[in-house]
Inverse folding.
């Protein structure tokens, strides 16, 4: 700040003898003797006069607190003594010539202290930055009624064990507090506070700007494309924690320390310094939430959740730092942003549910595999579950989803209103239920009923796997997982019955019993035809989960290969010497089954089966 500007911060002597009694009212303190008062005035003229910038070129270019800290301490003590003296003079004679004399000295002293206060704040910006201050100590330790300036020796000793930067910060804070206490007690709080507010507010405003947070209106944000807005959101997310933990917390610590003797001054200073920057910081999410609600999309939901998490996660600190009544507007703004963000998140979840309902894809998934809708929804839901605590807060008290949009058969009749589930658990279960209902409709797109059941088994298995391996499990519970795993097995059993029941049924009820040759030959023919037909249809099937794939294979092989092997061994007489009759040895059947459910054979599977069979016929069948 230019010297002219700095001078404008200082006061001009205005008091007269008639008004001094108002500035220095009498107190019940012990009245000083005339000799004591004269001695104090004489000493004050020497000590204070030395640092009168208007009378000394040396004082004009030299800093008292940087030049000689012991002399600075003596200066403060001298001013305090002068103040005590003036209280006594007021009590004795409000029109005393000595009172006018003391007042003139006090004016010089206050002007000097103002200059020192300004210089310390200005020259120590790097050492009084919020990061250095917030790391120094907690606010509780700075509320001591004993001035740190009186413990200068202790500070020096402590400085030997800490960094030089921290030491300089401690000394500067102690000097500021000593000056502030002296000026406030002398009735010059207004002049002291004015300098402090101007310099510290500029530091806070600069800090907010450097964090990439700018004041923007809702209309401005509404005109921004998503990529630009997301960049702003990322800047805000990176900066909000620093702003709370360092910038505002550090400023509160410094303010509490410097003005420890006056609660009202501490409050007014901190409020005026931080209010604007804090409202810009905590107002940004509210503007984004308003826009996000109108332009909902899955990726935007997670950004809003990140912003909600950033505020709610630091709420104890925010509430503590801005605990003054004069900073209640900051808390109100932060709460308004949380409310708006919560409203937008709930609206986006409803919109997400609608996208599941409205999915209009008509093409069946090849091989009955996992539908892209299943992948999208489960990925989305598992990511949402990572925000479980935040969503629990946002969804708390919300009414459960309406069941009227889904068939009654989709609901577990064991649900009881006597033991209601948390709102977040209900919401996650509902989203998955909506997906399952949609998948049930898509299963009907497959012409083969067996493939429909395999489709349902594949998709439900994918959902169960996602739930089991994510935080969704903790929201839905082990019982939900076990229940839906049982449904997967049921779907797989239905697929097996419809897809391979004909093959199993082509074998006699008791495959170990020897049959008449002609009946055995007919049974072999039926088995060949049904196995080839089933293999042709099922060779395009896909089971992406390896565990489910092995379970289905083992189950089918146990019934088909096991039964066929017993029939094959028990009726050797029927096929001995008739290689064209028995197309497959039991090992061949097992090999064909082992290659299933990878979806790699394609439409040409029947010719592949025939050519392999021909190769098998060209060699003699081994006797059992």
């Amino acid at each position: 700040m230019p010297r002219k500007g700095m001078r404008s911060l200082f006061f001009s002597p205005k008091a007269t003898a008639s008004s001094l009694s108002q500035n220095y009212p009498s107190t019940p303190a012990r009245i000083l003797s005339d000799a004591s008062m004269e001695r104090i005035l004489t000493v004050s003229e020497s000590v204070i006069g030395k640092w009168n910038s208007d009378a000394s070129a040396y004082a004009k270019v030299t800093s008292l607190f940087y030049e000689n800290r012991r002399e600075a301490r003596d200066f403060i003590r001298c001013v305090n003594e002068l103040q005590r003296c003036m209280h006594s003079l007021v009590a004795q004679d409000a029109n005393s010539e000595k009172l006018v004399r003391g007042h003139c000295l006090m004016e010089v002293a206050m002007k000097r202290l103002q200059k020192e206060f300004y210089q310390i704040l200005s020259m120590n910006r790097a050492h009084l930055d919020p990061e250095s201050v917030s790391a120094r100590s907690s606010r509780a330790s700075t509320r001591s009624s004993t001035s740190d300036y009186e413990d200068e020796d202790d500070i020096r000793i402590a400085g030997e064990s800490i960094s030089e930067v921290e030491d300089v910060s401690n000394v500067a804070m102690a000097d500021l507090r000593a000056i502030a206490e002296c000026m406030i007690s002398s009735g010059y709080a207004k002049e002291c506070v004015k300098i402090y507010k101007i310099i510290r507010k500029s530091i806070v405003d600069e800090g907010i700007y450097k964090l990439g947070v700018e004041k923007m209106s809702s209309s401005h944000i509404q005109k921004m494309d998503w990529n630009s807005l997301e960049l702003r959101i990322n800047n805000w997310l990176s900066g909000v924690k620093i702003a709370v933990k360092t910038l505002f917390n550090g400023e509160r610590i410094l303010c509490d320390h410097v003005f420890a003797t006056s609660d009202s001054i501490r409050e007014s200073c901190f409020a005026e310094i931080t209010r604007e920057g804090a409202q810009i910081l905590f107002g940004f999410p509210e503007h984004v939430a308003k826009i996000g609600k109108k332009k909902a999309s899955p990726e935007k939901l997670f950004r809003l959740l990140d912003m909600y998490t950033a505020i709610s996660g630091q709420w104890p600190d925010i509430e503590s730092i801005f605990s003054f009544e004069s900073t209640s507007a900051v808390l109100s703004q932060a709460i308004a942003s949380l409310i708006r963000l919560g409203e937008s998140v709930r609206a986006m979840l409803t919109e997400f549910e609608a996208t599941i309902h409205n999915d209009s894809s008509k093409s069946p998934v090849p091989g009955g595999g996992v539908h892209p809708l299943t992948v999208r929804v489960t990925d989305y839901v598992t990511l949402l579950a990572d925000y479980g605590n935040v969503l629990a807060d946002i969804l708390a008290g919300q009414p459960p989803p309406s069941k009227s949009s889904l068939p009654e058969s989709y609901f577990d009749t064991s649900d009881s209103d006597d033991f209601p589930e948390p709102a977040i658990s209900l919401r996650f279960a509902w989203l998955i239920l909506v997906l399952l209902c949609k998948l049930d409709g898509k299963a009907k797109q497959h012409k083969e009923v067996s493939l429909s059941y395999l489709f349902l088994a594949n998709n439900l298995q994918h959902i169960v796997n996602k739930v089991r391996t994510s935080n969704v499990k903790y929201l839905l519970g082990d019982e939900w997982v076990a229940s839906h795993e049982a449904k997967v097995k049921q779907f797989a059993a239905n697929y097996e019955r419809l897809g391979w029941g004909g093959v199993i049924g082509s074998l006699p009820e008791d495959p170990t019993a020897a049959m008449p040759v002609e009946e055995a030959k007919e049974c072999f023919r039926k088995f060949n035809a049904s196995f080839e037909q089933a293999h042709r249809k099922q060779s395009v099937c896909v089971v992406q989960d390896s565990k489910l794939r092995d379970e289905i294979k083992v189950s089918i092989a146990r019934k088909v290969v096991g039964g066929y092997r017993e029939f094959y061994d028990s009726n050797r007489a029927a096929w001995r010497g008739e290689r064209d009759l028995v197309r497959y040895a039991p090992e061949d059947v097992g090999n064909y089954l082992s290659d299933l459910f990878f979806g790699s054979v394609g439409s040409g599977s029947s010719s592949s089966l025939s050519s392999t069979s021909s190769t098998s016929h060209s060699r003699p069948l081994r006797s059992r």
The two ends are 106 Å apart (CA to CA). The chain has a mean pLDDT of 82. Residues 219 and 415 are 47 Å apart (CA to CA).
